[in-house]
Amino acid sequence: MAHSDSEDVTGAPEIIASRQQTRFHLLEDARSSDVTIEQLTLSIRASKAGSKAGSSKAAKAGKAKAGGGAAAKTRDILVDATLRLKAGVHFGLLGRNGSGKSTLLRALAAKVIPGLSLATRIVLLQQTAAEDGSGTEAPTGPRGAKTVMQYILEGDEARNQILEELNTLTRIEPRGDNEELGQLRAYRRLLYTRIQRQRIEAQKNAALRSGARGSQARKELIAFEKRVEEARDRVDNTEERIDSKECQDELAEASRLTAELQTELDERPLGDLEARARKVLSALGFTDEMMQKRFDELSGGWQMRCMLANTLLQDADIMILDEPTNFLDLLGIIWLQKYLIDLRTESSKTIIVVSHDRDFIDHVCQEIIMIKDQNLEYFDGNLTTYEEDQQSKRVNLTRLKNAQEKQIAHVEKTIANNIRAGKKSGDENKLRQAVSRQKKLEDRMGMQTNAKGGRFKLSRDMAGYHTSKRAAIEIPPEESAVAMTLPLAPDLRFPGALVSLDHVWFSYKPEQASILQDVSLSIEMGSRVGIVGLNGSGKSTLVKLVTEVASPTKGTVTRHPRVKIGYYSQLAVEDLRTAGAADPSMTALSTLAAEAGKEMDESDMRGLLASFHLKGDTASAVPVAKLSGGQLVRLALACIIWKHPHLLVLDEVTTHLDFYTVQALGRALRGFNGALLLVSHDRFFVKSVIEGAAELMGSDEEDEGSDAEEQVKAEMKRNLYLMKKGKLTLLANGVRDFEESLESRVDKLLAA
């Protein structure tokens, strides 16, 4: 009843999946956008190569138990969960970093989950590293050497399969002068290819079943293997008479199949695909010149955009988008948002989205799938509605529990009084009354409604063995991540702006046009400054001037003589991954030690890493190369926070974080007493951190300070600027001004 994908030669962990199997279950071979998998258990198991390497390394470090033993264990992602997808519905898959979202998506795409039809077409865009250490990489080799447009045109898998089968039928190799024999051989070659694909389904069927049904399935598989061998032998059989009735029937079927495949191919004209590809690529920022560039000559961000375009153009029943907004500017995000919404009326394609961009999830997704506690929970509505529903449940259940606790205390007091009075006076009626009240107390206290909101009924809602008559009132905990802690910025001793840019111009070469034009900006202690704009507008260049990575061509940049700046680059995660790949012994602790080892002892460094949820062996035993994207972001933040900066410069810091961690980071930044310069495409994060929309951060007792502290926060200088063509403009109405300026452009792109 289990199935797994093959172990990667590089030692990537193996995905193991099993599910409930009924005697009436039949494996379907038809395409479908609907999926219902009962009692699904999904696990990842470290490969033998990975376990041996981990054991060897741990032994050398004197930590054999922590290293080798832990690496060899199987980790459960889901246990007896129900996976349910509905045709045409857009789902948002949510959960903390490390909960198994990317692993579940990869298992779906690889069809290692028993019960998924091989005929169902599933396409996956997976940009970030999965929890099992895997991830999507840009193609190399022949396809990587193609132009962007060729990459898209050759990426239509459905069309490619039709072409492959048509080429098999038309690739005739006549024997002597007998062309019909060549046609017959080509037809049999195609049948052999198809039956090989069917064998995979038969093998899965045999693996799924147990007992008598399993024995029968294995017998059927043996018989099927014989059919495969016979099909292979028929390809090379040259002794049959071509004029026999059987051969002539096969030739007639070959002609019919050729015509059918040609019709299917004609329905997918390459010109139409190219027109659609050009439209999607243009919306994602590609110029005509860039479309003719080789794929492998593009930067990582542009390669991911190309892969996104390829995914959107696939003829798929289920489309999976894992962090599709990474590397997109706000124009691209809003376009993708509207593109996916339009698909609801145009196709029955099921879409699953994982994203840290809360606004994107709210607009695109109709239902939420929450992965937590090794289970899948479903909610009909978007993320905001889900959180409002959860908060309402917590409030109502808290009130109910408090009321019942008061009622229980009153009844228990009455029972105790009756028992005491009955024993004192010998009144049996009072004692019987006390017993009756105790029984009612046990029978009637607890949940008054069932899981569906109806009236609780014992025989229906608590069938089977149980120790109480009603379920206890359990208040679901808040889903927010554990709060992060940012150290306070030290006193500057004398006032003044931290960084000031005065009429700054910048160009990389004298003969080139200026990237920044007459930019003036002042950042003071406590300031919240946000920069938004499209890719290539000059945002990162401005950040480099603020952080002294570059100097202005004209104008002046002045800094407070005591200012300390903490700079998080948008390339921070990639830089750590590169360093970790080059040095397998590199850990989070050793990385921080290289930065702060002379000024911090190990206990202080461990404490700082723990405040970013990199604790214990995660900090000191797990190689940096094995850390998830979210963990690498937190490590990069720890490496800039240790020196207690007055100014935090964060360039696209939310990439790779789940939305819980985004929320936790937002709360931490809200309480930071220093200044913040934020560059981000995440509308939710900008609204909450720069514009000060505290309600977006949720309620958290730890986030509530004194009245004086709240007054200081209210008086913070908050400015959001738009960077456009090298010029900086203040947005009076914040992010909404920028969104409105882009929506008309998006409408034109969709209508083109």
Give an account of the 3D structure.
The relative contact order is 0.09. By secondary structure, this protein is of the alpha/beta class. The strands form 4 sheets. Strands 6-7-8-5-9-10 form a 6-stranded mixed beta sheet, with helices on both faces. A hairpin with a 2-residue loop joins strand 18 and strand 19. The protein contains 26 helices and 19 strands. The two termini are 50 Å apart. Pfam families: ABC_tran (PF00005), ABC_tran_Xtn (PF12848). One of its GO terms (molecular function) is ATP hydrolysis activity.
Lay out the secondary structure.
Blueprint (H helix, E strand, L loop, with lengths): L1 E3 L9 E5 L16 E11 L2 H13 L3 H8 L2 E12 L4 E5 L6 H10 L11 E5 L21 H6 L3 H14 L8 H30 L2 H25 L9 H22 L3 H14 L4 H4 L8 H13 L5 E5 L7 H17 L3 E5 L3 H7 L2 E6 L2 E6 L2 H43 L2 H17 L13 H4 L37 E8 L9 E8 L4 E5 L6 H8 L7 E6 L5 E4 L3 H11 L5 H9 L5 H10 L4 H5 L8 H13 L5 E5 L7 H12 L4 E5 L3 H7 L17 H8 L3 E7 L2 E4 L4 H17 L1
Parallel strand pairs: 5-8, 5-9, 6-7, 7-8, 13-17, 13-18, 15-16, 16-17
Antiparallel strand pairs: 1-2, 2-3, 3-4, 9-10, 11-12, 11-14, 18-19
Helix pairs in contact: 1-2, 5-6, 5-8, 6-7, 6-8, 12-26, 14-15, 18-22, 19-20, 19-22
CATH topology (fold) name of the largest domain: Rossmann fold
> Under the CATH scheme, which class of the largest domain?
Alpha Beta
| Radius of gyration from the alpha-carbon trace, in angstroms | 31 Å
Shape assignment: globular
* Number of beta-strand segments: 19
Number of helices in the DSSP assignment: 26
Q: In which order are the strands of the major sheet placed?
A: 6-7-8-5-9-10
Structural class: alpha/beta
User: Helix amount, in percent?
Assistant: 40-55%
For CATH, the homologous superfamily of the largest domain is named as P-loop containing nucleotide triphosphate hydrolases
Biggest sheet descriptor: 6 strands, mixed
Mean pLDDT: 80
Instruction: Give the N-to-C terminal Cα separation.
Output: 50 Å
Beta-strand level of the residues, as a percent range?
A: 15-25%
- Annotated CATH architecture of the largest domain: 3-Layer(aba) Sandwich
Supply the number of structural domains.
Answer: 5
Which spans have pLDDT < 50 for at least 5 consecutive residues? 6-10, 23-27, 50-72, 129-136, 699-704
Organism: Lasiosphaeria ovina
GO molecular function: ATP binding; ATP hydrolysis activity
Domain ABC transporter: 56-398, 499-723
Protein name: ABC transporter
